[in-house]
Specification:
Number of helices of chain B: 10
Number of domains of chain B: 2
Helix content of chain B: 25-40%
Order of helices and strands of chain B: HHEEEHHEEEHEHEEHEHEHHEE
Structural class of chain A: mainly alpha
Strand content of chain A: under 5%
Oligomer: heterodimer
Strand content of chain B: 25-35%
CATH superfamily of the largest domain in chain B: P-loop containing nucleotide triphosphate hydrolases
CATH topology of the largest domain in chain B: Rossmann fold
Number of strands of chain A: 0
Largest sheet of chain A: none
CATH architecture of the largest domain in chain B: 3-Layer(aba) Sandwich
Number of strands of chain B: 13
Chain lengths: 170, 304
């Protein structure tokens, strides 16, 4: 029973450490996913002048979850609940917060982007998209640095800390 | 039905607080021709026969901005050309005219901002509106080039739409089969296309070029769609007339409309006068108000 408890403790600590390390890798993947999604949105807006809700409805089918869920939430809220794009966007950000490993920088970038999405002419939209991609790129570089610095560390911390606790308890 | 369309417009585009006020007048919706919105002034329903009903005492700027946001789907950039021209078309073919502050670039309007007035024109499809006219247009089962002229608000677009529908579907009373009709719908008023799909019935053999300038559209249709009839609304420029002449020389029949009170105005029009005098239009009909109703009068070709 004692051995079982120790193994459980070490397993849990290891899992926590690996999960944290996984979070760093997933954050990078999530930022890349956002970059690709907004590049597609930019193309849809610039080349076919599709309104925001219609563009998001079209792209929703081509995107992976959870960005797909975010796009779906936004266009549904605008279309069916008569919200403004901004209000629907704010609601949709919650999905990204809950379902991705995105950090403050990239979530802030996406939130700010939503403030002026749809307002103004094409030139204004272009600047908005450029700023968003710049901020996402910055967040991506920061995430990669963090992964290099802390990714492996958390794996070892998870295993070692749990083993230390197990020894102490023994 | 127009009543349902107006109700749908109210629910889709107007703020909740105004919706309640407007829905109190739901019984009048069937007769609504226009919904007039002006900032800091009453919201008015314009009904048939010139009657009006004020439904909201004062429309605020915030409420107007809400309406503009809803009609543009929160995407002003997608409607740059429409804002520049001062109108856009909603699902169902209803046209919204707008006024505001013009933003100029090199002396020409680039767009409108600070929208202060909107006019929702309710599109009405009236099957049978062209029953009398089609007898002359397709007399002897041969389609004759037709020019329909009237002042604004007499229903020439409604009549043209029904004429297109009947020619496209065929006319059983004349034992006439349907023909391919090409429509250049520059302002999306004839077919009311949304996402490329006509919202109004223009017939099963009708191809619609939506939002396309008439002069270019006519040439495109001739080159690629093989129409037997080309229909356009409101010709008036030299480019339009040149494109019509090209179509006529290709053996394609033309059905079109123009602004004016009758033949006299057409003969004074620098672009249309040559076409009329050279006999391009065997049928010229005018619409005008008479005893509270729209009456059709044949300036030319009124004999069967």
């Amino acid at each position: 029973m004692k051995v079982g408890g120790i193994l459980l403790l070490i397993g849990a600590g290891t899992a926590i450490g690996f999960y944290r390390a996984y979070g760093f890798r997933k954050r990078i993947a999530d930022i890349i996913m956002l970059q690709n999604a907004f590049r597609l949105l930019e193309t849809e807006i610039f080349y076919t002048l599709t309104p925001v809700p219609a563009a998001m409805e079209l792209l929703e089918q081509k995107l992976p979850s959870p960005v797909q869920h975010f796009f779906h939430q936004v266009w549904c809220a605008v279309q069916n609940e008569q919200m403004s794009v901004f209000q629907a966007w704010e609601q949709g950000i919650v999905i990204l917060e809950q379902e991705t490993f995105c950090g403050r920088e990239e979530l802030g970038a996406v939130q700010s982007f939503g403030l002026s999405l749809g307002d103004g002419d094409l030139a204004a939209q272009q600047k908005n998209f450029q700023l968003l991609q710049q901020r996402l790129q910055y967040a991506l570089e920061e995430a990669e640095r963090e992964k290099l610095q802390q990714g492996h560390m958390w794996q070892y911390v998870g295993v070692c800390a749990s083993m230390a606790v197990a020894i102490l308890l023994c | 039905m127009a009543g349902e369309a107006v109700k749908e417009i109210v629910k889709q585009y107007f703020p909740q607080v105004i919706q309640q006020d407007m829905l109190r007048y739901e019984l009048l919706f069937e007769n609504v021709q226009e919904i007039r919105c002006r900032v800091e002034r009453p919201l008015i329903l314009r009904l048939k026969q010139g009657l009006e009903q004020s439904v909201v005492e004062r429309l605020t700027m915030e409420q107007m901005q809400h309406i503009v946001s809803r009609i543009s789907q929160g995407s002003v950039y997608a409607w740059e050309e429409e804002f520049r021209q001062g109108y856009l078309t909603l699902r169902g073919g209803h046209r919204v005219g707008m006024t505001g502050k013009g933003v100029l670039e090199h002396g020409r309007i680039r767009t409108l901002k600070q929208i202060s007035g909107l006019n929702f024109r309710i599109a009405r499809s009236i099957p049978g509106a062209a029953d009398e006219l089609v007898q002359y247009v397709a007399a002897g089962r041969k389609i004759r080039n037709t020019l329909l002229v009237s002042p604004p608000g007499c229903g020439k677009t409604t009549m043209l739409r029904d004429l297109i529908r009947q020619l496209s579907n065929g006319i059983p009373s004349l034992h006439m089969a349907g023909v391919n009709v090409g429509v250049v719908d520059e302002r999306s008023e004839l077919a009311g296309c949304v996402n490329g799909i006509p919202q109004l019935d223009v017939g099963c053999r009708t191809d619609v070029l939506d939002g396309c300038p008439k002069s270019e559209g006519i040439c495109m249709l001739i080159r690629s769609m093989g129409p037997q009839v080309v229909a356009v609304d409101e010709i008036g420029t030299a480019a339009d007339a040149a494109a019509l002449e090209t179509a006529l020389q290709s053996g394609i029949h033309i059905i079109t409309t123009a602004h004016g009170n009758g033949l006299t105005d057409l003969l004074r029009h620098p672009v249309l006068c040559p076409l009329v005098e050279q006999g391009f239009f065997p049928v010229i009909a005018s619409l005008h108000w008479q005893n509270g109703q729209v009456a059709l009068h044949f300036e030319r070709g009124g004999c069967l």
